[in-house]
Amino acid sequence: MSFVASKRLTLFDYVNYSLLAIMSIICVFPFIYVFSVSFTDPKVYVPLQFYLFPEKWSLSAYRYILSTNSFMNALKSTVFVTGIGTVLSVIVSFTFAYVLTKKAVPGRNVMLGGVIFTLVFNAGILPNYLLIKDLGLLNSHWSLILSGLTNAWSLIVIKSFLDTLPSELEDAARIDGCSDIGVFWRIIVPLSMPAVAAFTLFFAVAYWNTYFNALIYLTDAKKWTLQVLIKSLVIDSDSNGVGGSGGSDDRVIPQETIRMASIVLAMVPILLVYPFLQKHFAKGVMLGSVKG
């Protein structure tokens, strides 16, 4: 069957696959360059030269970055925002979406209408900033967590997924004496694990990559997240942004290797999460987007 299927490939298919392969390689090259430069020994590094593989491997840039106060503070801030924010976002999103599935809940249509309204209209940057300021959350990591706790798209997709679960299971649990909270935690949550895994990944990536909110809400450089720190390194060309350990290392190690190593360190942790959630990821997205 595989031989017959391969014979059905047309010239368009071959051209299409070739173009996709070329585009994929082009997209991968920047990652290879960043990875290669970050591991290049400072003694053999030549500016403005493309490195497919390091001429001489070295961990000098990584040792320097991990020894600085600024990078470690940014890493701690990002881990805190990602960890706490992801947990709270998953809890709030699934509990709120579960309420929206119950037609008997008073004000359910009003709440659902409000969710859909925010999907179409957004308050804007200035009102959001004034709200965070009035709540006293400026220059606090909670401004990043609470401002992105949930969103209309996530609520609608999760609600669509929860609507597919058999209501008979909830009725049976209530007959056995389960309360509404018991039904949610003992019946709904275990059945929703694929969706929970998918949205855990969505929220974790969103919080880890938080940049704009951190840029406008955090004025203390010691509370910066990784993305803001890397922006200072790459765009502002400020290699002193990761300083803090002093010494002459920042004069020995090229600024470019420091920037690239910072980018790699910011990418790797969140990439390591994907293999653990991959088996639930596709299933969770499909179940949450299609009802039937």
Describe the structure.
- The protein has 292 residues and is mainly α.
- It has a domain at 69-219 and 273-289: MetI-like (MetI-like fold).
- It contains 16 helices and no strands.
- It has helices at residues 2-7, 11-38, 60-66, 69-100, 108-120, 125-134, 142-147, 152-163, 167-175, 180-191, 193-208, 212-217, 226-234, 249-252, 255-271, 274-289.
- Helix 2 (11-38) packs across helix 15 (255-271).
- The longest helix is centred in the N-terminal third of the chain and has 32 residues, at 69-100.
- Mean pLDDT is 83; it is low at 244-251 and 288-292.
CATH architecture of the domain at 69-219 and 273-289: Orthogonal Bundle
CATH third-tier fold name of the domain at 69-219 and 273-289: MetI-like fold
CATH C-level class of the domain at 69-219 and 273-289 is: Mainly Alpha
Distance separating the two termini: 32 Å
Shape: globular
Give a count of the beta strands, DSSP E runs of length 2 or more: 0
Structure classification: mainly alpha
CATH superfamily of the domain at 69-219 and 273-289: MetI-like
Order of helices and strands: HHHHHHHHHHHHHHHH
Rg: 24 Å
Q: List the uncertain runs.
A: 244-251, 288-292
Largest sheet: none
Organism: Paenibacillus sepulcri
Domain ABC transmembrane type-1: 75-276
Keywords: Cell membrane, Membrane, Transmembrane, Transmembrane helix, Transport
Family: Belongs to the binding-protein-dependent transport system permease family.
